[in-house]
Amino acid sequence: xxxxxxxxxxxxxxxxxxxxxxxxxxxxxxxxxxxxxxxxxxxxxxxxxxxxxxxxxxxxxxxxxxxxxxxxxxxxxxxxxxxxxxxxxxxxxxxxxxxxxxxxxxxxxxxxxxxxxxxxxxxxxxxxxxxxxxxxxxxxxxxxxxxxxxxxxxxxxxxxxxxxxxxxxxxxxxxxxxxxxxxxxxxxxxxxxxxxxxxxxxxxxxxxxxxxxxxxxxxxxxxxxxxxxxxxxxxxxxxxxxxxxxxxxxxxxxxxxxxxxxxxxxxxxxxxxxxxxxxxxxxxxxxxxxxxxxxxxxxxxxxxxxxxxxxxxxxxxxxxxxxxxxxxxxxxxxxxxxxxxxxxxxxxxxxxxxxxxxxxxxxxxxxxxxxxxxxxxxxxxxxxxxxxxxxxxxxxxxxxxxxxxxxxxxxxxxxxxxxxxxxxxxxxxxx
Length: 431
Known about the structure:
The chain has helices at about 10-25, 30-35, 45-55, 70-85, 90-120, 125-155, 170-175, 210-220, 220-230, 235-250, 255-275, 275-305, 320-325, 355-375, 380-400, 410-430; strands at about 165, 180, 190, 205, 310, 315. By secondary structure, it is mainly alpha-helical. The chain has a domain at about 135-250. β5 and β6 form a beta hairpin. The relative contact order is 0.12.
């Protein structure tokens, strides 16, 4: 099944596009690439995506089959956001339009890359090429975070080396009092007013601006790596050790909980599908750890919820406010997924999501959750681990709520889920 070879130049372009788009808005890569142009997010990214897409494929439009209705729902969410922006005559309408164009071209780009590699090489090689840039980025972050921790603990690097005073990705947090450093030009070091962790170190965030953002972006790769190396005990152990260190070094509560739940699900799958006694022991250990973190989380969350801000009438917990905004529409048309401000401003009278956006967002989330769970339950290891990767992403996304629509990373997950659906029968046939 060889229809020729993909030119090396195309492979390089594909790698860079996928790398930039997946990490954009969540890492320093987009800053390095677009800040010097003076183009605000997401204008620079959208122009880049359109130009590269047209250069690479030269056509617009792609037909999806009946298994891809969730792709249409995803794009419909963005299209309706644009219409709501126009209805309210807000300046954010242009931003919404840029996001729609960007994710449309990006999903098509990923799927067309998959189809081209499929035509040339066939087999699961196609999926591996689609996820290779993402896995490379994730592995790089794992390495620099662990290496930074070792060098800082050994005293070879100083926490306050290479301070960062100005950066568009870090600007809001810097304004809020967070200090950033990049010792040895490896992982970013975040020194905030209040921090917690299991090691005598500040927060190590890789190339991202916050610990939970680092985990949100790279932890699904743990399961994608397992989908490739599940037959190698040494590599599985190495992956567990490396990613557990990332979770502990970042120590983002949402990431810890979502990761623990995903690991529990993995052990349950081995017990039910593989009938493994060893996994029962591992499950008990994991549940004990989960109980410890869950108790800590509940106590912390309870304290925050009980602390009200009287003039705003809302919670101090940013994530709960975002979820409250999403699930409490006060009209058919609203501000959608791009409201006028975030945090407490979401509670203002003129900020409401709109009933249609609320239904679309929740419907899409439920469809993706069901599809991911079906993959997780598969007796085929490759499909199972892809399902776990999607489930982790969706669980962690509850922290972001509607804000998951503001970054191209979501479009990558959608495209990848679509490709897995296309390859499902082939994976099952090969076992």
